[in-house]
Amino acid sequence: MANSTLLANLASIFVTLAAWIFLRQRPSGLFLAGLGAALAGVALLVHTSLEFSSTGLAGDALGVVTAMFYAGYILAVKGLRDRGETTLHLMAVTTTITALFLLPVALASGEQMLPASAFGWWMLVGLALISHAAGQGLIAYALAHLPAAFSSVSLLFQPVMAALFAWLLLAEGLVPLQVLGGIIVLAGIYLARRGSSAGQ
Fold first, then answer.
1. What is the distance between the alpha carbons of residues 156 and 5, in angstroms, rounded to a whole number?
2. At what angle do helices 29-46 and 176-199 cross, to 10 degrees?
3. Could you please report the per-residue DSSP string of 33-68?
4. Which end of the chain is more exposed for a tag (fewer CB within 10 A), N or C?
C-alpha cells in the first residue's frame, strides 16, 4: 500500500521541474535538500515491499505516469486558485467532469458498479467524503496559500500514513527501516517548507 501511494506522490518531482522550466521558479538549495530527504525517506519506507519483476516494473511505470498527471493537476488547481477560483466551485466542476469521462470507462469494464452490501456502501461513502471531498478539497484549499512545489512535497506524507493505516487495519507489518523512513520524510517536509518560505 505504501509503495503504490509513493509512486503517485512522486508528482513533487514533476511539479518542481515544471515550475522551474516553465515558470522560471528556481528552487532554493534548502528546498532541494528537503525534497531529496523526503524522497529518500519514502524510499526507505517502501524498501521492503519493492519486488523487481516484470509485473512489478509495469506497475511502477504506470505509477510514474500517474505522478505526471497528478503534477499537472496540482499545477492547474494552483493556477485556478491563484486567480480567485473558490475551492467548492473547483471541486464541483472537476468532480463532475471526471465522473462524465470515467463513467463510460467503468461501464465498459464490465465490473460491478454498485456495492452489494451495507458495508460496501459505507466504504463507498467513506471514499467519497473522506478521500475525495475532504482530502482533495483540503489540497485544493491549501494550494491558494502555499507554493505548488511545497504542497506537492508535503503530499509525500501520504505514504507514511498509508503505511501506518496498512499496519493498523490490514496487518501489514512495519519494520524499523520503514519507521526511520517516515521520520526522514517529516524532516524533509520541514526543510522543504523552510526552503519554500525563503524563496518567496
1. 9
2. 160
3. HHHHHHHHHHHHHHGGG---SHHHHHHHHHHHHHHH
4. C
* Per-residue pLDDT reduced to its tens digit, 107-131: 898 888 888 899 889 988 988 898 8
Q: Using the 8-state DSSP alphabet, how is residue 196 labeled?
A: H
Is 13 within 8 Å of 174 (Cβ atoms)?
Answer: no
Reduce the DSSP state of residue 143 to 3 states and report it. coil
Distance CA 37, CA 25 (A): 20
Q: At 79, list the grid cell.
A: 493556477
3-state secondary structure of 134: helix
- Return the percent helix, strand and coil in the chain, to nearest 5: 80, 0, 20
- Closest by CA to 200, choosing from 159, 147, 162, 154, is 147
Which amino acid would we find at residue 163? Answer: A
- Report whether 146 contacts 196 (CB < 8 A): yes
Phi, psi of 155 (to 5 degrees): -70, -15
